[in-house]
Specification:
The structure holds 2 protein chains of 2 kinds.
Chain A lengths: L8 E12 L2 E12 L3 E6 L5 H9 L6 E6 L2 E2 L5 H8 L2 E4 L11 H12 L4 H14 L15 H12 L6 E5 L7 H18 L2 E5 L3 H7 L2 E6 L4 E5 L2 H7 L3 H7 L5
Parallel strand pairs in A: 3-8, 3-9, 6-7, 7-8
Antiparallel strand pairs in A: 1-2, 1-4, 4-5, 9-10
Helix pairs in contact in A: 3-4, 3-5, 4-5
Chain B lengths: L1 E6 L4 E7 L12 H8 L6 E5 L8 H16 L3 E2 L6 H12 L15 H34 L7 H11 L4 H25 L6 H39 L2 H7 L4 H38 L5 H11 L5 H24 L5 H33 L2
Parallel strand pairs in B: 2-3, 3-4
Antiparallel strand pairs in B: 1-2
The chains are: A alpha/beta, B mainly alpha.
Chain lengths: ~250, ~375
């Protein structure tokens, strides 16, 4: 975590095809996420971005293809190995997905008490640290229903970071946030990557976020049902000649 | 995860942080550090040497946060230069937004009398809510009679299927068993007088007047009442009910009325079916164990069960239908916006319905006795 390796492959997606029954959502996806990347999965609504995320984090099995974590195929791994891989990532769901019957502190504490043998006092200390990292110091005793949507998202990040994961997955992190909160969230993501070296995978279609934080990306096309491009989003904007990508990255202005 | 201390001539305490820091191994204690500081005079500043630091994670941050907080309380300067850049940045991030002091919740338990008072007031409020809800349903029902209630026919048909046909297996099983139990209990007593044949009367009358309606209602309270509460509760959580209101569609008409109608129509029919199954259950005991011939059992039942015997059961079934639907819809509409609230709504719907069924059954039995049916 202290050392930051450029170009070390963290996640590899190989020939991935996702489908609901016989309905193919995306086919033959191939891309690589390097360690320390902020990798954006982008594309129009309904193109399968969130489904790709579900395939990558083990919530939905792909119809075909592989997802490799540091060379190890997730979907071919046994239950224990799968658990070990899953232990390496944290996920922020679109709505925060905090457990409503638990306080923020209990939400963040649950993964710690499940996966570590830390004492109650130690967990409490770490929970306070995680909540202060996302700017929620003092809100330990609040229930999710008592705080705003933006705060729920941040608490969700604190929970995702609870076990100091190598990889953080964010599903539409800025959806439903005001521009200032969305920007703060972007800054937090950058800070986490820069200071902890965490690999971040973000599903989003917010252009401001894409350009502010992304250094690598994949563009999913809803019509051809496969990836149309991959690479640094700024470079895609400058160099891509694909009208679909240009239209998406310029909000339809070119 | 080693920490050592070194005091330099310029009054600085250097904290040497070494090795790998991993939360899986637990958190480092600041006890030794605090003991060091306890020896007077206090150092002017604290500095760090992380040259031997290996892998690190939150456990190091937690340790450093504690050290920083402790130094803050003793007014000792903390120099972070010797720490890795990532650590410094995260420590800055953690202290960037100061703790919101007024956010801390004070938890105090009110005195006993105050809690009793609150509970009584709460009870009064909940009775108010039940009456208000019943009133609103009444208004909706009047609108329905005048043909002005707006709901979709397909919803009603689906609900009728859910609370009618789909409830048949569980009602069959329960009623058959209740008939069996009644026959067993009756047979033991009646055998003493050699009057086993009256088991048919006992089971027939008990099912038709009382048990058919009550058992069906209790099954439906657990099955359908809870489902109504959970459906409406989830709609409340998802703001679907707000969406109806803002469109000018009354949730009472659109959601509650079809549920009420479905149960009011289906519960009497299920009750009749339950009577039949109960009598069959009694027949199994009577014919199979007491040696009564099937023809005799049938004739005895037929003689005991005049049509009037079914009237109290059917009236009760209608009332119970209203109760189950009302309590399911009431608790669903009262649901707060969280997943646990949906669970509470479902539980509360079943409890309310069963209590109301038993109370109203007792009242109705007395009334029927008085008016002689």
């Amino acid at each position: 975590m202290d050392s930051f390796h450029e170009q070390e492959t963290c996640i590899e997606v190989r020939d991935l095809t996702m489908a609901y029954g016989s309905f193919v959502i995306q086919h033959d996806l191939n891309f690589t996420v390097n360690r320390g990347d902020i990798f954006i999965i982008m594309g129009g609504s309904g193109c399968g971005k969130s489904t790709l995320l579900r395939n990558m984090v083990g919530l939905q099995a792909p119809a075909r293809g592989k997802v490799l974590y540091s060379g190890e195929s997730f979907w071919d791994a046994g239950p224990e190995d799968k658990k070990q891989i899953m232990r390496r990532f944290g996920i922020l769901y679109q709505s925060g997905a905090l457990w409503s019957s638990m306080t923020l502190a209990e939400n963040v504490a649950l993964p710690l008490s499940e996966y570590t043998s830390l004492s109650h006092a130690e967990i409490k200390e770490l929970v306070s640290l995680k909540l202060s990292l996302v700017g929620l110091a003092g809100f330990e005793e609040f229930y999710p229903s008592e705080i705003s949507g933006g705060m729920c998202k941040r608490a969700g990040i604190a929970r995702a970071m609870a076990l100091d994961p190598d990889m953080l997955f964010f599903d539409e992190p800025s959806a439903g946030l005001d521009p200032i909160s969305a920007r703060r969230l972007d800054e937090l993501i950058l800070e986490l990557r820069d200071s902890l070296g965490t690999t971040v995978i973000v599903v989003t279609h917010e252009l401001a976020s894409i350009f502010a934080i992304g250094n690598n990306s994949v563009f999913l096309d809803a019509e051809t049902r496969t990836m149309a491009a991959s690479g640094n989003p700024r470079k895609l904007l400058e160099e891509s000649r694909d009208p679909k990508i240009r239209k998406f990255l310029t909000r339809g202005e070119s | 995860m080693d920490v050592s201390f070194d005091r330099t001539a310029d009054d600085t305490l250097i904290i040497r942080i070494e090795g790998n820091w991993n939360i899986a191994k637990g958190l480092a204690s600041t006890e030794e550090f605090e003991k060091r500081l306890g020896t007077k005079p206090l150092p002017a500043r604290i500095a760090f040497d992380a040259s031997e630091l290996g892998h690190w994670d939150s456990s190091l941050l937690a340790f450093l946060s504690k050290v920083t907080a402790y130094c803050g309380s003793k007014s000792i300067e903390v120099v972070r230069q010797g720490l890795p850049q990532g650590v410094t940045r995260l420590l800055e991030l953690a202290s960037a937004v100061p703790e919101k002091k007024d956010a801390r919740k004070e938890r105090h338990r009110p005195p006993f009398l105050s809690r009793v008072g609150e509970a009584v007031l709460g009870l009064g409020k909940s009775i108010d809510e039940i009456l208000a809800f019943t009133g609103e349903v009444g208004i909706s029902f009047c609108k329905f009679i005048r043909g002005k209630a707006r709901f979709r026919g397909s919803d009603l048909a689906l609900l009728i299927q859910e609370c009618g046909a789909q409830a048949l297996p569980i009602v069959s099983l329960i009623s058959l068993l209740v008939g069996l139990i009644l026959a067993f209990v009756g047979a033991v007593q009646l055998k003493l007088f050699g009057a086993q044949i009256y088991v048919a009367d006992l089971v027939g009358i008990a099912m038709a007047r009382e048990m058919g309606a009550m058992m069906t209602a209790i099954v439906m309270a657990g099955r359908t009442g809870a489902a109504f509460a959970a459906q409406l509760g989830t709609m409340e959580v998802n703001e679907e009910i707000d969406a109806l209101k803002t469109l000018g569609i009354s949730p009472m008409d659109f959601l509650v009325m079809p549920r009420m109608l479905a149960l009011i129509l289906m519960l009497p029919l299920l009750c009749l079916y339950s009577n039949l199954m109960g009598i069959l259950g009694g027949g199994i005991v009577g014919i199979g164990m007491l040696g009564i011939s099937p023809i005799n059992y049938f004739h005895e039942t037929k003689a005991a069960l005049t049509l009037m015997q079914f009237v109290p059961g059917l009236i009760k079934a209608v009332v119970f239908g209203v109760i189950v639907a009302l309590s399911g819809c009431l608790r669903g509409m009262q649901c707060k916006r969280s997943a646990s609230a949906v669970g509470e709504a479902a539980t509360s719907a079943v409890v309310t319905a069963i209590v109301a069924i038993i109370v109203s059954d007792a009242l109705l039995t007395v009334v029927f006795d008085r008016i002689g049916i």
